[in-house]
Write a structure and sequence with these properties.
Layout lengths: L2 H22 L5 H25 L2 H18 L5 H23 L3 H10 L7 E2 L2 E2 L2 H18 L5 H28 L3
Antiparallel strand pairs: 1-2
Helix pairs in contact: 1-2, 1-3, 2-3, 2-7, 3-4, 3-7, 4-6, 6-7
Length: 184
């Protein structure tokens, strides 16, 4: 699946989820809301699974980024905690996209390696813990915290777990890019 199709599909799924959630709260719209919500979750799950099977770090974070950006856009303006968390997530993925470009250039990325301390707390599998890794680690924590909240629908929990798996795959495929960039 190409990146444009992935982005469009995850956008539609996120919109269905949001409209469905809002339908839960509207008297007489509960059933329609539930259907849209479940359809959105199922579609999102399929898209996140497709992205994971492609094992492409750019595709994986692009799908996650698009989903997050829509959650941020659709978030109630009075929900300060969610707005803050989603804004931080989007900003960290903005930085991750920048380093994704840099890792493709061996010469530049070797400079990145030299600029990062070689202490293990600044490394992931012995490679620089750069903004890509930091974005994935921070977002993984965010998703795990959501999973701990009581009352989350089991199908949404499954989607959150898939997103967690995608972050691990994204980091593993990114580490391979780092390995190539830093090979002698």
């Amino acid at each position: 699946m190409d990146l444009i199709t992935l982005v469009n599909s995850i956008s539609n799924a996120a919109l269905n989820i949001d409209i469905g959630r809002k339908g839960f709260a509207a008297r007489g719209k509960e059933q329609e809301g539930r259907i849209l919500y479940e359809t959105g979750i199922a579609k999102a799950m399929t898209i996140f699974q497709q992205a994971q099977s492609a094992a492409d770090s750019q595709a994986l974070i692009l799908v996650e980024y698009t989903f997050l950006a829509l959650e941020l856009e659709l978030c109630a303006k009075i929900d300060k905690y969610s707005l803050s968390s989603l804004t931080q997530a989007v900003q960290s993925f903005d930085d991750a996209f920048l380093v994704l470009q840099i890792v493709e250039d061996k010469t530049i990325y070797q400079g990145v390696d030299k600029s990062h301390p070689h202490n293990k707390k600044y490394r992931v599998k012995n490679y620089p813990k750069d903004s890509f890794h930091i974005a994935c680690i921070a977002h993984r924590t965010r998703l795990k915290n959501i999973l701990k909240a009581p009352g989350i629908d089991p199908i949404e929990k499954a989607l959150l777990e898939q997103r967690l798996a995608n972050l691990s795959t994204a980091q593993n495929t990114y580490t391979e890019k780092q390995k190539i960039a830093l090979a002698n």
